[in-house]
Design brief:
By secondary structure, this protein is an alpha+beta fold. The chain has a domain of 96 residues. The chain has 19 helices and 27 strands. β25 and β26 form a beta hairpin. The protein is globular. The N and C termini lie far apart (64 Å).
Length: 643
C-alpha cells in the first residue's frame, strides 16, 4: 500500500509540475521556492473529495533532491526546462510551449483516414502517435520509439544547434547543427554538420545516450551543405574504388540476389554453378552481406575478404561471458507513470467527443481501474492558483453518478483562453515525426491524394525535416490488389535459411512494414497454416484465383514481432558498437554492465535465428544463457569448411 501511495503521489506531482512549468514563461518564470511552497496535489487515497497536501515535503535537502529528480524525469520525456538567473542565487524555470508539443494541425477527414491507415501499416507502438489516432491497441512496433525525436525535430525547425551524448566506439559529447533526419531500412539517423566545422555526419538516434538539448545557438546552412546532407548515407565514408566480390550459389538464390542488388551480374560456369559478382561501398559492407547469407553461398573472391571472413568465423560467440546471476533488467522505466498519464491526457485532447474509461483502457492496454484512478486525479487538478493557470481542464461525465465507482465515465476537455494561452496541442514533435514516416511508407503502397496533402501539412509545420529510404519491393501493388480482391496466389519464395526457391500457394490478408522491409501475412495452403512472408523474397506471382474456402481466424495478433512474445529468454552480452544489430529485436531489454559492455535480453522461438544472429555479431558478442552458450559456433564451423 505504501508503495502504491508513493507512486500515485509521484505521478500527480510530476504531471502537476509539467503543466505548471508550461504555464510559466520567460517573463513570468517559477522559482523552486514558489513551487515548493505553493504546489498542492490530492492526497493519494480513494475519496471523492481528497485532502490537498503540499507536493514537496521533508527537509530542505530531501525537497531539493526530489525536485532535481523530477526535473530530470521531465527532461527524459523530451521537455526542455529553460532556466533564467534571477539574481541573488534565485533561478526561474519554465517550459516553452513548443518545446515538446507541435502546432495544431487540422487534418481533413480523408487525411485523418490515411493517417490511421498508415500508422497501422507501419505498426508504430503504443507509446507513440498510434494511440492518438486509432481506437484499438497498438500492434507490432515499426520504427523504434524514442522521446529523443521531440528535441531533434524542434531543433531542425528552429535551426539551432543541439548537444547530446553519443556512443560509437566510445561515449562522447556531440554538438552539431541538425540538417535532417534520415530513415534508412527502418533505422533513424540525425544528419548534421559538426558545429564549428564543415564535416557532415550521421548519428543513429538509438545510440544517443542522453536527451538532446536544443541550444540557444542559431546556425545557417548554404545550398552545398544541404546537398551534402541530402547525399549522406550510413557508412558514407566511401573508398575511391568499390569492393568487388564473387560468390557461388544456387540458380534460384542467384536470381534473387540480382533482383535485390541492381547492378549485380550473373554467370554460369562450365560445371553449371551460378556465379554472382556484386559491388559494395566498403569491405565491411561486403563482409556483412556474406554473413547475412550464411550457408546459402560460397565466397570465391577476393582473397583478402576470404581471410577476413575466416578470422571472423573463428571468434563467433567465443568472448568471455559474465555470470548471468549478476545481470538484472529493469521491467519498466521510472518515467512510465508520467509518460502514461500524459498520453492519456493528450488522447482526450485529441478527441472532440471525449473518451470513456473503456476506450482508454482498450487503446492503451491498461487496467480500467488504473485509467479511472489516473483520469479522476486529472479532473480534480488545481495545483496552484493566481497567475499560473492551465489552458485546459478535464471534465468527467457519468451515466450513473450513484454508482460512479463502476460507471464507464466519459472524459472531455474544457479549454480556457487565459493570459494568451490557447488550446493545448495534442501532438508532440515526435508524433509528427512518426506520422510523417508512416505516411511516406504507406505512399509506397497506396495512391491517395490525401497522403500527399497530409505530408505537406506536416512538412509545412516543421520545414521539411525527414526522408525515407527503404528496400524496393516490386510486388507490393500486386499483393495489395490480391488482399482487396480476396485472391489466392501461387508464388515462388526463398526463405531466410534456404538457397532454393519453392512454390507456395497463399491467401494474403495484411501488409505491414518493419525495419525498412515489407511483410505480408497470409494463410499458406501449402503448409496448412498462417505464415509471414518477406516481400522482397517473393520471386514471382505465377497464378491467381478467388479464395475458395473460409479460414480460421489468425491466432497470432502481433504476427510481425511474434519472435518477441514467445520462446526461450536469452541474454547476450555485446560490445556497445554492436547495439545496432540487436536494437530491432522486439521487446528487448537492456542493461549496461560495469565493464562497459551491454547485456540484452530477448526471446527466441527458433534456435536457427540465434545462430545467425551470433554469426553476424562475431567476436563482439557472447551468449550468457547456459543453455545457448554454443549458439552460432556450429554454423560458423560449417561455413569455414567451405572456404
Amino acid at each position: 500500500m505504501a508503495t502504491s501511495q508513493a507512486a500515485e503521489e509521484s505521478r500527480e506531482r510530476l504531471v502537476a509540475l509539467v503543466l505548471l512549468l508550461q504555464s510559466a514563461s520567460r517573463q513570468n518564470p517559477l522559482t523552486q521556492d514558489v513551487i515548493v511552497r505553493e504546489l498542492l496535489v490530492d492526497e493519494p487515497r480513494e475519496s471523492r473529495a481528497p485532502r490537498r497536501i503540499p507536493a514537496y515535503q521533508g527537509s530542505e535537502v530531501a525537497v531539493r533532491q526530489k525536485f532535481e529528480r523530477d526535473k530530470a524525469r521531465i527532461r527524459d520525456l523530451g521537455f526542455q526546462i529553460e532556466t533564467l538567473d534571477l539574481g541573488g542565487g534565485s533561478v526561474g524555470y519554465w517550459i516553452e510551449p513548443d518545446s515538446a508539443t507541435a502546432p495544431k494541425i487540422d487534418f481533413t477527414e480523408d487525411e485523418e483516414r490515411v493517417v490511421r491507415l498508415a500508422l497501422r501499416f507501419c505498426g508504430f507502438g503504443a507509446p507513440g502517435a498510434f494511440s492518438l489516432f486509432n481506437e484499438g491497441p497498438a500492434g507490432d512496433g515499426g520504427l523504434s520509439f524514442s522521446n529523443y525525436y521531440t528535441p531533434l525535430v524542434r531543433a531542425l525547425r528552429l535551426q539551432r544547434a543541439v548537444r547530446f551524448d553519443y556512443r560509437s566506439t566510445s561515449e562522447k559529447v556531440r554538438v552539431v547543427d541538425p540538417l535532417s533526419i534520415g530513415v534508412f531500412e527502418g533505422a533513424a539517423y540525425l544528419i548534421a554538420r559538426v558545429h564549428g566545422s564543415s564535416a557532415i555526419k550521421g548519428y543513429r538516434v538509438t545510440r544517443m545516450t542522453s536527451m538532446p538539448t536544443v541550444l540557444d545557438v542559431a546556425f545557417e546552412a548554404d545550398a552545398p551543405t544541404r546537398e551534402a546532407a541530402a547525399a549522406w548515407r550510413p557508412e558514407f565514408a566511401r573508398p575511391l574504388e568499390p569492393t568487388q566480390i564473387v560468390v557461388e550459389t544456387s540458380e534460384d538464390y542467384a536470381t534473387l540476389l540480382c533482383r535485390q542488388f541492381p547492378g549485380a551480374t550473373l554467370a554460369t560456369t562450365s560445371a553449371g554453378i551460378a556465379e554472382v559478382e556484386l559491388a559494395f561501398d566498403s569491405p565491411r559492407d561486403a563482409l556483412r552481406f556474406v554473413l547475412d547469407a550464411g550457408e546459402r553461398l560460397r565466397l570465391r573472391a577476393p582473397k583478402s575478404l576470404r581471410q577476413e571472413l575466416a578470422d571472423w568465423l573463428r571468434h563467433v560467440n567465443r568472448a568471455t561471458a559474465p555470470d548471468l546471476s549478476g545481470i538484472t533488467f529493469n521491467q519498466s522505466s521510472p518515467n512510465d507513470s508520467l509518460g502514461q498519464t500524459l498520453r492519456l491526457l493528450h488522447a482526450v485532447y485529441q478527441s472532440a467527443q471525449g473518451l470513456r474509461i473503456s476506450d482508454l483502457a482498450h487503446r492503451f492496454s491498461m487496467d480500467p481501474a488504473m485509467v479511472r484512478r489516473v483520469m479522476d486525479r486529472l479532473v480534480t487538478f488545481e495545483p496552484m492558483g493566481g497567475a499560473y493557470g492551465f489552458p485546459a481542464h478535464v471534465v468527467k461525465e457519468c451515466d450513473d453518478w450513484d454508482d460512479e465507482a463502476n460507471d464507464d465515465s466519459l472524459y472531455t476537455v474544457e479549454y480556457f483562453d487565459r493570459d494568451g494561452h490557447h488550446e493545448p496541442a495534442p501532438l508532440y514533435w515526435r508524433d509528427l515525426f512518426e506520422v510523417n514516416i508512416a505516411l511516406r511508407e504507406a505512399a509506397r503502397l497506396y495512391d491517395d491524394p490525401a497522403l500527399s496533402s497530409a505530408i505537406a501539412k506536416i512538412e509545412d509545420a516543421v520545414d521539411g525535416f525527414v526522408r525515407v529510404e527503404t528496400a524496393h519491393e516490386w510486388l507490393l501493388d500486386e499483393l495489395r490488389d490480391a488482399i482487396e480482391a480476396s485472391e489466392q496466389i501461387k508464388i515462388t519464395y526463398t526463405s531466410s535459411e534456404s538457397e532454393q526457391s519453392e512454390t507456395r500457394v497463399i491467401e494474403p490478408r495484411e501488409l505491414r512494414v518493419l525495419n525498412g522491409h515489407a511483410y505480408v501475412r497470409a494463410f499458406c495452403t501449402t503448409r496448412g497454416d498462417w505464415r509471414t512472408f518477406r516481400v522482397d523474397r517473393i520471386g514471382a506471382i505465377l497464378a491467381k484465383s478467388p479464395v475458395a474456402a473460409e479460414r480460421a481466424v489468425d491466432p497470432v495478433v502481433n504476427w510481425l514481432t511474434e519472435v518477441g512474445e514467445g520462446g526461450d529468454e536469452v541474454v547476450v552480452v555485446i560490445e556497445p558498437g554492436l547495439r545496432w544489430l540487436f536494437e530491432p529485436l522486439p521487446n528487448a531489454q537492456w542493461r549496461a554492465l560495469q565493464d562497459g559492455r551491454l547485456a540484452v535480453a530477448f526471446r527466441v522461438r527458433d534456435e536457427r535465428f540465434l545462430d545467425h544472429l551470433m554469426l553476424r555479431a562475431g567476436a563482439g558478442a557472447v551468449v550468457a544463457t547456459p543453455g545457448f552458450a554454443k549458439a552460432g559456433r556450429a554454423l560458423a564451423a560449417r561455413i569455414a569448411e567451405r572456404l
